[in-house]
Amino acid sequence: MTSVVNAWFSRLNWSGTPKVNLDTLQTLHLRHNCTIPFENLDVLLPREIQLDDGALEEKLLTARRGGYCFEQNGLFERGLRELGFNVRSLLGRVVLTNPSALPPRTHRLLLVELEEERWIADVGFGGQTLTAPIRLCAGLSQKTPHGEYRLLQERADWVLQFLHHDRWQPMYRFDLAVQQQSDYVMGNFWSAHWPQSHFRHHLLMCRHQPDGGKLTLTNFHFTRYQDGHIVEQFNLPDTAALYALLQARFGLGVDDPKHGFSEAELARVMAAFDTHPEAGK
C-alpha cells in the first residue's frame, strides 16, 4: 500500500486487508465518517482551503483535522483510487432548504463503479451525509447505518433524498458529467468566500458513531443523537469548554504547527457570532 493509504488507515484505526469489493468500500465509508469530523473552522479562522493531494493529506491525516465536502471526498477519492477502485468526483447543487432558484454546484460527491454496478459515496455532507455507499438506482429506498435514503432521476439529473419524520427531504441534485480539478477549486472558493455562505456564519461540526449515533455542533450548541433521537444536548458556557470538547468528543487535532489553532484563536472566531450561550443554560 502507498504511504497515504497507510496514513489514512492509521487515522481510521483500521488494520484490515483491503480488497476492491463492496465490503471494503462500506467499511472504509463508515470508518471515515466516524473518525474524521466534518468541520468548517478554516473558513472562519480564516485560512485558505487547499485541495491538492499534499494539502489534504497534511491537514486531515497528519494534523488530524477535519474538513468539508471538497476536502473529505477529495481524500476519500484518493484513498479509494490508490486501492484500485474505479472512482471519480461529481458536483451537486444543495437543495436542502428548498431554494426558489437552483444554486451553484458547491457539493462534491463520488461515483464508484464496482462489480458491474454504480454507487454513490459521500463522506462530506455533515450531519445528514451518507455513512454507506448507495446504489445509483432510481426510486429504491436504501438503508444506511444512520438513516434511509433514495435517489430520484429527473432526465439527466439525480436527486438524493433522506427520510425525515416519514417525509422524503431533498438534499442535493447532481448529474454524472465529468468534472475537472478547476471545478472543485471554484466550488470550494465560492463556499468559503461567498458572503451568504452558511460556512461563514456558523461553526459546524459532525462526527458519526459506529452504533448509529452522531455528534453535532452548531456554534456553542452540542447535540448527541442515537438512532435519530436526541439523547444529549447542552450549550457550552465559554470558549475554553468548546476548545476542550472539540478534542474530547470530536477527536479534533489542535496542536499541529500549521493546521492547529489555539484557544485564543478560537475565541476570536466565536466572538464574531451574534449569539453566545448563557452559562448553565
From TrEMBL:
<comment type="similarity">
    <text>Belongs to the arylamine N-acetyltransferase family.</text>
</comment>
<keyword id="KW-0808">Transferase</keyword>
<dbReference type="Pfam" id="PF00797">
    <property type="entry name" value="Acetyltransf_2"/>
</dbReference>
<dbReference type="GO" id="GO:0004060">
    <property type="term" value="F:arylamine N-acetyltransferase activity"/>
</dbReference>
<protein>
    <submittedName>
        <fullName>N-hydroxyarylamine O-acetyltransferase</fullName>
        <ecNumber>2.3.1.118</ecNumber>
    </submittedName>
</protein>
<dbReference type="GO" id="GO:0046990">
    <property type="term" value="F:N-hydroxyarylamine O-acetyltransferase activity"/>
</dbReference>
<dbReference type="InterPro" id="IPR038765">
    <property type="entry name" value="Papain-like_cys_pep_sf"/>
</dbReference>
<keyword id="KW-0012">Acyltransferase</keyword>
<dbReference type="InterPro" id="IPR001447">
    <property type="entry name" value="Arylamine_N-AcTrfase"/>
</dbReference>
